[in-house]
């Protein structure tokens, strides 16, 4: 076949049939919105507002397209967007640093690029999984946003008049459209051209399509991936600055759930989460579609209501809108559905096959692709005896850290730390995290990840609280409904990740937003409180339960322990004991390890790897559900933010406890010790020492740093044995010098 004909048959990288379908879908949805709510969508102003709001999302989507084509992921773009806007406000606002516009913008652009560089180095050079590295960056960035704003909005409309050139970027120009639309168009054109017609684009597609082959072809794949993260962060920084220019201020909610919106936009636009395919035009249309759907959901349906004022009935116009939490639920579903497009529609060429069938022609062959996932985490054989054998264990570090941290607290505040009731108060905080960690140990040992455990905790708690408070159900029914809600979330995770073959971090990321949105939906975004004491006994001390049933213990050590030990602590020890025995001493536990160590080899050995992964994900949901039900009983109320950042704490606990982020290893003792480390770190940072205690937002930043350090230790100390290799190299050098000297 001539080379010219081969080139002509290559798929176009600028635009294709997928984009045409997206345009038709956009038109249908917009017309549907205009039919439902003509007062809003029927006006030119609404169309202009749609393009304006799409601009910032689409600019970030341009950078994200490069990352996803590289077979990577960037979960930090929402935090970068918010952090850049907040830093700009802190630098520019007269009530803070009061810097000039040029210096403020320059610092923000450099900050965005620095975060991108850190993400790229973590993922490529330091080999941290992309979703772990960028998830941690997301949470650290969110902590900085809340800490820098102190939970309050920052506005600077007066000083904005001193820099009209910059702030005009967020306003309407003389041609009648917002300047953000023009900036988006420029970014999109440049991004599309670079991806489709330059060496950068060629290297990006090659790296995402087959990184090993790209290396053999001489492509610097590490630099290609770092470059994509730099572009992604730069685009997020530009969008953050445009938002600051438009609003002339910033709120702590900037960028919340932004990463979900952008990833969904790029996947809907035709990019493959498996890498190697994507177009900027599709990503921009995907961003438009996501923003349009969001507006349709938020604007609601115009209705009329009749209200009674005294004896007179008055008809007023109103809008029926979805409850609080409905939009995150929809966006989470949208992400999962978008990712399913790749294996079940595009790869199988459903549209092309249908078109061929309608025309009576033979169907095109399905696109083939092999996706393998396997990691091996083996202990380094050490000829150690006595205490050295304990030190050789992967979970020894967590146990030692637990002891050191507890002694540190005793040294700093002996008056507080040595008190028995305060010690068990810390244990109460530990119990919730430890329960979640028990289930997550199985998931990580099986080679998966569950980012939804904190949200499932909130979902189970909200379901129980809703039945108790709103429906007046009895405690047993409330517990059953909480268990049902949490286990349904776990079932969806398991079915999507195992049955539909989606990456577990994508499936559980979608559930993270769905469950969190449902939790807020059930309680209408409000805190609920006030239910029967019979339910609250789940969160009380053992002695409280005995007294509830008129059982009085005699004075002595048994009563003293009953007065400080809680029911959930006893339950956690029971669950952890059973789970630890099953993982360490039963065939199922060995199957979990084998699945995470090398899933293909385990399958060849006759192990039902799907069953091991399915049960592990269900167990994680069950443990998170129990923690949510107990949370409601312990606090005697439910808050929609319950379980926030618990997924970060739990993942860090397992890794600190010796588990491998790549699967194949993990012990219950190590995970529980890791949870103790996280709990003690939080307790120490919140400890009032000579009048100083660290604010909560900075503590979350600190925990995020701990997670990254723990993952790096796992990769370079446990997996790569960097210290052992260094010792071997030094020993070889010493022998060489001795030989030369001799």
Lay out the secondary structure.
Blueprint: H1 3-9, H2 17-36, H3 38-41, H4 44-69, H5 77-92, H6 101-124, H7 130-149, E1 154-155, H8 157-160, H9 164-167, H10 179-197, H11 199-209, H12 211-216, H13 221-247, E2 249-250, H14 258-268, H15 280-299, E3 301-309, E4 312-320, H16 326-346, H17 350-358, H18 387-391, H19 396-412, H20 414-417, H21 420-445, H22 453-469, H23 475-499, H24 504-522, E5 528-529, H25 533-536, H26 542-548, H27 557-564, H28 567-585, H29 587-597, H30 599-604, H31 609-635, E6 637-638, H32 646-656, H33 668-685, H34 696-719, H35 722-741
Antiparallel strand pairs: 1-2, 3-4, 5-6
Helix pairs in contact: 2-15, 4-10, 4-13, 4-14, 4-15, 5-6, 5-7, 5-13, 5-14, 6-7, 6-13, 7-34, 10-11, 11-13, 14-15, 14-16, 16-24, 19-33, 21-28, 21-29, 21-31, 21-32, 21-33, 22-23, 22-24, 22-31, 23-24, 23-31, 28-29, 29-31, 32-33, 32-34
Question: What share of residues are in beta strands?
Answer: under 5%
Overall radius of gyration: 28 Å
CA-CA gap between termini: 66 Å
Helix tally equals 35
Q: Name the poorly predicted regions.
A: 1-11, 367-384
Helical residue percent? 55-70%
Total strand count, please? 6
- The 3D shape can be described as globular
Mean pLDDT: 84
């Amino acid at each position: 076949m001539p080379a010219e004909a081969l080139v002509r048959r290559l798929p176009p990288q600028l635009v294709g049939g997928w984009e045409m379908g997206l345009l038709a879908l956009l038109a249908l949805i917009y017309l549907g919105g205009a039919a439902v709510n003509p007062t809003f969508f029927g006006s030119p102003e609404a169309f202009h507002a749609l393009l304006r709001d799409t601009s910032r999302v689409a600019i970030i989507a341009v950078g994200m397209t490069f990352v996803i084509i590289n077979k990577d992921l960037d979960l930090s773009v929402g935090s970068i967007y918010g952090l850049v806007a907040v830093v700009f406000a802190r630098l520019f606002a007269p009530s803070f640093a009061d810097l000039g516009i040029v210096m403020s913008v320059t610092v923000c652009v450099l900050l965005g690029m620095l975060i991108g560089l850190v993400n790229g180095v973590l993922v490529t050079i330091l080999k941290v999984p992309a979703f772990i590295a960028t998830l941690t960056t997301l949470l650290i960035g969110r902590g900085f946003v809340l800490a820098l704003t102190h939970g309050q909005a920052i506005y600077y409309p007066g000083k904005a008049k001193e820099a009209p050139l910059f702030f005009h970027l967020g306003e309407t120009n003389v041609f009648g459209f917002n300047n953000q639309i023009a900036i988006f168009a420029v970014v999109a054109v440049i991004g599309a051209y670079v991806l489709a017609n330059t060496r950068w684009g060629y290297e990006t597609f090659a790296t995402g399509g087959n990184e090993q082959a790209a290396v053999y072809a001489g492509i610097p794949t590490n630099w290609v991936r770092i470059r994509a993260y730099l572009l992604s962060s730069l685009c997020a920084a530009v969008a953050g600055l445009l938002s600051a220019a438009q609003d002339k201020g910033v709120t702590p909610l900037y960028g919340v759930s932004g990463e979900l919106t952008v990833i969904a936009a790029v996947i809907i636009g035709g990019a493959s989460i498996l890498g190697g395919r994507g177009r900027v035009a599709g990503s921009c249309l995907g961003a438009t579609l996501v923003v349009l759907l969001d507006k349709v959901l938020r604007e609601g349906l115009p209705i009329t209501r009749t209200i009674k004022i005294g004896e007179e009935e008055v008809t007023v116009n109103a809008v029926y809108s979805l409850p609080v939490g409905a939009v995150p639920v929809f966006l989470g579903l949208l992400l999962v559905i978008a990712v399913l497009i790749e294996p079940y529609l595009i790869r199988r060429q459903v549209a092309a096959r249908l078109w061929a069938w309608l025309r009576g022609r033979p169907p095109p062959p399905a696109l083939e692709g092999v996706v393998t996932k396997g990691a091996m985490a083996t202990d380094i054989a050490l000829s150690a005896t006595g205490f050295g054998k304990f030190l050789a264990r992967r979970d020894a570090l967590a146990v030692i850290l637990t002891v050191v941290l507890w002694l540190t607290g005793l040294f700093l505040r002996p008056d507080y730390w040595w008190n028995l009731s305060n010690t068990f108060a810390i244990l109460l905080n530990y119990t919730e995290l430890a329960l979640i960690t028990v289930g997550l140990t199985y998931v990580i040992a099986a080679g998966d990840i569950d980012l939804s455990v904190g949200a499932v905790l909130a979902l189970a708690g909200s379901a129980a609280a809703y039945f108790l408070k709103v429906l007046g159900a009895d405690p047993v029914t409330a517990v059953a409904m909480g268990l049902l809600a949490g286990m349904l979330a776990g079932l969806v995770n398991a079915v999507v990740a195992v049955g539909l073959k989606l990456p577990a971090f994508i499936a559980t990321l979608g559930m993270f937003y769905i469950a969190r949105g449902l939790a807020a939906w059930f309680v209408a975004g409000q805190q609920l409180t006030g239910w029967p004491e019979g339910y609250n006994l789940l969160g009380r001390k053992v002695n409280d339960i005995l007294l509830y049933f008129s059982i009085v213990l005699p004075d002595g050590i048994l009563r003293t322990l009953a007065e400080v030990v809680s029911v959930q602590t006893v339950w956690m020890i029971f669950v952890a004991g059973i789970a630890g025995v099953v993982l360490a001493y039963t065939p199922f536990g060995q199957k979990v390890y084998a699945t995470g160590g090398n899933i293909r080899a385990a399958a060849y050995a006759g192990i039902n790897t799907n069953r091991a992964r399915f049960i592990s994900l269900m167990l994680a949901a069950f443990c998170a559900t129990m923690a949510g039900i107990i949370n409601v009983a312990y606090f005697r109320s439910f808050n929609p933010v319950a379980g926030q950042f618990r997924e970060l704490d739990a993942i860090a606990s397992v890794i600190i406890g010796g588990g491998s982020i790549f699967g194949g290893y993990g012990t219950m003792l190590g995970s529980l010790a890791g949870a103790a480390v996280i709990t003690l770190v939080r307790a120490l940072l919140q400890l009032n020492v000579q009048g100083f205690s660290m604010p909560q937002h900075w503590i979350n930043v600190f925990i995020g740093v701990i997670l990254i350090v723990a993952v790096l230790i796992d990769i370079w100390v446990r997996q790569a044995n960097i210290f052992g290799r260094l010792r071997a190299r030094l020993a070889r050098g010493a022998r060489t010098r001795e030989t030369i000297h001799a």
